[in-house]
Amino acid sequence: MTTSAEAHFVRQSFNEPMPPPMRTSGIIHWLRTNLFSSIINTVMTLFILFALYKIVPGLIDTLIINAVWVADDSKACVADKVGHPVGICWGFVAAHWDYFVFGQYPEKLRWRPELFFALEVIGLAWLLVQRIPRKDWGMIYFFIVFPIVGFCLLSGSETLGLSIVQTHYWGGFLVSIVIGTVGIVVSVPLGIILALGRRSHMPVARSSSVVLIEFIRGVPLITVLFMANVMFPLFVPEGWRPDSLLRVLVGVALFFSAYMAETVRGGLQAIPRGQYEAAQALGLGYWQMMIKIILPQALKIVIPGIVNNFIGLLKDTTLVAIVNIFDFLKVIEASLNDPVWRTSGMPFAGYLFAAIVYFILCYGMARYSMSVERRLATDHRH
Amino acid sequence: MSVESAGRPLEAKVVFYNDPRIRSLFFQLVLLALIVALFWFAYDNTVANLKKRNIAQGFGFWNVEAGFDISQTLISYSAASSYGRAFWVGLLNTLLVSGVSIVLATLLGVMIGILRLSKNWLVAKLATVYVEIFRNVPLLLILYFWYRGVLGLLPEPRDSIKLPGNIILNTRGLMMPMPVVSEAFIYPLTALVLMVVTAIGIILWAGRVQDRTGIRPKVGWLTAGLIIVVPAIVFIMAGAPLSFDIPVQGRFNASGGMTLAPEFVSLVTGLTTYTAAFIAENVRAGILAISKGQTEASQSLGLSHGQTIRLVIMPQALRVIVPLLNSEYLSLTKNSSLGVSIGYPDLVSVFTGTVLNQTGQAVEMVSVTMLVYLTLSLLTSAFMNWFNRRVALVER
């Protein structure tokens, strides 16, 4: 047994200070939790860092430092002729810039497509930037005024004193944007009508909408374009001879209307029944109910979906190159066949440039659609 | 009056043109008339136009000799074969490229989707970069990039690139060893099937034991051993009835082996890299849709990490993922028609391209092609709906 005297203990000196607790903030902690949390993670991190170390400097060299920025022909971009290693030949893009943007649109009249681009940007900003007021006027501007003005600007009109420019002179980015714009301007209203038709109580309206929507969604765009290209001229009297760009525009617009219809239908289904009943109780007719009560709410919910459709539309406008419309991708391809520029590295420059342009446009729209989604999500939380 | 109307609703006197039923009937008749008029207009003009251009109608061309070659054929075909045969060749090529791309895109997509959720910041960011790049660039551009950009840089046959595993890569395409199977291969194959059936039986038995006693017999190694070892032994006993035809580098081209045309390789690569980005997003969305509480609950029940994923997370995540995958597979199949732009002989390229140019029968060619895609779409969504119902049942 121990005596009580032994059990008493009085500390004579301070304890050694304990080590500081693990950091829960700062760069070390971040590294430890995000990059080196386990053996496997550490191995993966080191491997990726090594791979990046191997790849990135070479990539920067090819894309920027060794790249040729100014070139008159492909000779400036061939390593043997210049005497030092060359990267991407951006000079190819710079030399063809005007052709890439306007195609063969007459040089003196290029202020017209430029004005068209400006009007388009105004319309899109009006509709998409939340801070700009009067969205109803914006809709009228974008869906009615702008298409008419744009058409007169691009193809010309005798009465306004603008000389006529045939569509086969149009090309490049301009044509891609025209196809995209017509796709949007037609497919939104047509999609709304198809969506309303699909939810209608009239059997004829419903079944014809369903058949059209499901048929178009079941086939690839390229077959619709082939149909527009080779079958559409057969459907009309021989004298009409529809313009080749117009045929493709009809195909693209019809195709995206079906997808737009499904997106809008999603919005219509999300509106509670009470809204319909309340509108009817107020004595509103079908169109008044839709235009004043249902559609404003439904369309607001599906803005992200509509923007995602636009992304798909913009990406799919490239397919018109297959039916020989000179869109952005096709003019790049055409200039690759230019004998002055024919070398093996050139397709990289052209396609990379196109990829960067499409990426900026599509990624921008995707970010916009995500921000709208977040804003709408907070609206519901209250 | 009030006594009379109490039993049944008051029938208000309305002018006939304000009666909703008559209005609806009227609108539908107008719509129907418009549709019929439109179709009649198109039909009438088409018949007139075809007669004027001296183009045949109907499917008489189906058995006519085609007279053109196709670079990739799964069934025997020559220029002397009929247009109908060319149709099947094109259709099989479409199915082949879609099937291969679907499998590869699913593997790559699921992997990237899981990597996007990695705890490792670098890994997650790299996966995100991949997804954003491939989602926001047109597929046609990706195809051109692979076909004219990357494959355009490949060397001539005389200085081909040799990859490990006897794979040769040059401008003519990708050549790899082709498995050659002799008749005795049926024995190891039968053994494999038998062992798989046995393994399934053992697993079912283990499940029943677990239900009864609460302890699961450890059968993992046993089943794996049965499936691998037994067929391997039979394979060796049957005299290894499988050999590989290895491509040999010649002076002008490699011979032997199995050659994948550059068009096929670029189309599969393009479709896979593009669709994988979308599948990755779907997989990520599906896994994120499962709340953390599910993982914690299953852990507190004593389930292991693997069991948690297999029995708790996946069945629920699949319910979200499967319908999304369904539409990805459909659009991949439809997107395979872009092969026409790089000269892959798929249905659109063969039928709506070459055959249409030769016969001029636009209406028949385009309608047949569209019908095929419609059928494929309906079949795929029917199958995926069936699968989806099964997945949904597991959960309830």
SSE topology:
The complex is a heterodimer of chains A (about 375) and B (about 400).
Chain A: H1 4-7, H2 26-34, H3 39-65, H4 79-82, H5 90-95, H6 97-102, H7 111-128, H8 135-155, H9 172-198, H10 203-218, H11 221-235, H12 244-270, H13 273-281, H14 286-301, H15 303-316, H16 328-336, H17 346-381
Chain B: H1 2-7, H2 20-53, H3 83-116, H4 121-135, H5 139-150, E1 161-163, E2 167-170, E3 173-176, E4 178-181, H6 186-213, H7 220-237, E5 242-245, E6 258-260, H8 262-288, H9 292-300, H10 305-335, H11 347-359, H12 362-395
Antiparallel strand pairs in B: 1-2, 2-3, 3-6, 4-5
Number of helices of chain B: 12
Order of helices and strands of chain A: HHHHHHHHHHHHHHHHH
Classified in CATH, the superfamily of the domain at 94-105 and 165-376 in chain A is MetI-like
Largest interface, C-beta closer than 8 angstroms, per-chain residues: A-B, 54 and 53 residues
Output the strand order for the largest sheet of chain B.
1-2-3-6
Given this structure, which CATH class of the domain at 94-105 and 165-376 in chain A is correct?
A: Mainly Alpha
Number of strands of chain A: 0
Q: What's the average pLDDT of chain B?
A: 83
Gap between N and C termini of chain B: 56 Å
Morphology of chain B = globular
- The name CATH uses for the topology of the domain at 83-155 and 262-395 in chain B is MetI-like fold
How does the major sheet of chain A shape up?
none
Please tell me the CATH architecture of the domain at 94-105 and 165-376 in chain A by its name: Orthogonal Bundle
Number of helices of chain A: 17
Mean pLDDT of chain A: 86
Tell me the Rg of chain B in angstroms: 29 Å
Any idea what the CATH superfamily of the domain at 83-155 and 262-395 in chain B is called? MetI-like
CATH architectural grouping of the domain at 83-155 and 262-395 in chain B: Orthogonal Bundle
